Amino acid sequence: MTSERLNADFGLAEHLVFFNGPGGLVQARLACSWGAAVVSTYAGQVLSYVPAGAAQDLLFVSEQAAYQAGKAIKGGIPVCWPWFGPDPQGLGRPQHGFVRNRQWQVTGSHRSADGAVRLVLGVTDTDETRQRWPSAFALRIEVTLGQALQVTLVTENHSDAAMEIGQALHTYFKVGDVNRARVVGHGKSVLTCRR
Fold it and tell me: How do 168-169 and 149-157 pair as beta strands?
């Protein structure tokens, strides 16, 4: 879909605006009083997150990132699915799965009463994906910009058989001095598989 069509169907005035980004790939700019974020509809990938009052983006995207169909965008928060790392069966399939280099569909948008903005993107199986991986599936990513940036990845199994997956939100953080960086707290993973 074009950025014009997406703005007509899912845009939220100044809070969620679709535009043509590098390489002509459609991106969405989310904005609220707590900050701003940019999400690429290609790869379903968060590319930028700047909390209100922050001096710089918290996410790193390489200056040499490729913004073209068939290539993964290096940086931000790529979605790795249905495997993380090399092809687990050694069949020559792409590193980190096949959803990070395909177009996702916008399926929803919402601005809540507290001002948080949500964008929902999805991708489903096709004849082409079933040549790489045989299962029927629906995958969606929900990006919510509120007091913090929340990214939720949901997998649905639409086949009759169980499917084994590996998935990751492979975040690239911008770090000023790696010797002073610390990781505190804990992460939360939510895996939902339905038949």
Answer: unpaired
3-state secondary structure at position 179: helix
* E-strand stretches of 68-163: 79-80, 105-111, 117-124, 137-145, 149-157
The torsion angles phi and psi of 118, rounded to 5 degrees, stand at -125, 135
* pLDDT at site 187: 58
What is the phi/psi pair of residue 76, to 5°? 70, -130
Q: Is 101 helix (H, G, I), strand (E, B) or coil?
A: helix
Strand partners, 105: 122
Token pair for 154:
């949901």
Region of poorest pLDDT, from 7-16, 45-54, 135-144, 178-187:
178-187
> pLDDT-derived band of residue 191, with 50, 70 and 90 as boundaries?
very low
Give the other-Cβ count within 10 Å of 90's Cβ: 7
Q: Work out the pLDDT band at 179, boundaries 50, 70, 90.
A: confident
Cα–Cα distances in Å, from 12 out to 72, 110, 168, 183? 28, 8, 29, 34
